[in-house]
């Protein structure tokens, strides 16, 4: 793994850990699953496959952010708008 890829993987891991703080099932469960996924793929040396996994990781980051924004929107809607 090249140094820029290593830096990108660590940055992705840190970003996902940060996003996991608000995970509905709890931070510890999210952290354990994230650690297991990264540990399982830690022996990968193919540069193309690492790039594909990084792109998938960035997709997951965007999906988690969208999930949190939707959760926030629904809470605001419940708070300020009457259902009747």
Automatic annotation (TrEMBL):
This is Electron transfer flavoprotein regulatory factor 1. Belongs to the complex I LYR family. One of its GO terms (biological process) is negative regulation of oxidative phosphorylation. It comes from Vanessa tameamea. Pfam families: Complex1_LYR_2 (PF13233). It comes from the Eukaryota. One of its GO terms (cellular component) is mitochondrion.
């Amino acid at each position: 793994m090249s140094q820029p890829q290593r830096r990108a993987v660590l940055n992705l891991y840190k970003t996902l850990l940060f996003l996991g703080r608000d995970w509905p099932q709890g931070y510890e469960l999210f952290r354990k699953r994230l650690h297991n996924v990264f540990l399982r793929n830690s022996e990968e040396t193919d540069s193309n496959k690492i790039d594909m996994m990084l792109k998938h990781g960035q997709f997951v980051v965007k999906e988690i952010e969208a999930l949190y924004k939707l959760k926030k929107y629904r809470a605001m809607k419940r708070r300020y708008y009457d259902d009747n």
